[in-house]
User: Fold SYPL2 protein from Bucco capensis.
Amino acid sequence: RLYQIPFEMPDCEDESQTHTLHLVGDFSAPAEFFVTLGVFSFLYTMAALVLYLRFHSLYSENKKLPFADFCVTLCFAFFWLVAAAAWGKGLSDVKAATRPSSLLASMAVCHGPNTVCNAGTTPAMGLANISVVR
Assistant:
């Protein structure tokens, strides 16, 4: 929800005044899907461990239970792939929306004839990139 993030932009006319601008975009859905799937995967793993350890005889005697477990695990693997791809796309959209050159292009104060705007440092996205690889 980048639109909720404000930042201050100086006014070239009056240096004591600033304009409050907001980032553009809402990329929360892929992140929420990724986290929700992670929580459900964890809960299913805990339930499967209880089934494997506590009710081992029921699991080994019933022939449909291992197949159902395999099908649910296969579904989780597929949804995990989809969630990782969605989070990767969401992250690339966040990077594009917060790129310093994109932010400078969206600021009207930087479009003056004798105005030079500098972004300073580029934000570090290493940890965000690692979250997609996981």
